[in-house]
Design brief:
single chain; 56 residues; mainly alpha; 68% helix; rod-shaped
Length: 56
């Protein structure tokens, strides 16, 4: 029974820590563009056919 005295505050602290991390991520804008990063990795901005020949 005395274990609950320690575990409940630890659980509340970890929950508050997770909630504050989630709120920080929301305020910093990490959830605004969910598809942009996934699409940017596939598209090269300078992907022109002449660039391959000039680089060699």
């Amino acid at each position: 029974m005395t274990t609950l005295v320690y575990l409940i505050p630890v659980a509340l602290f970890l929950g508050a820590l997770g909630l504050s991390g989630f709120l920080w991520a929301l305020r910093s804008g990490q959830y605004e563009d969910l598809d942009g990063a996934a699409e940017r990795i596939l598209i090269e901005p300078d992907d022109r056919p002449g660039d391959v020949l000039q680089s060699k």
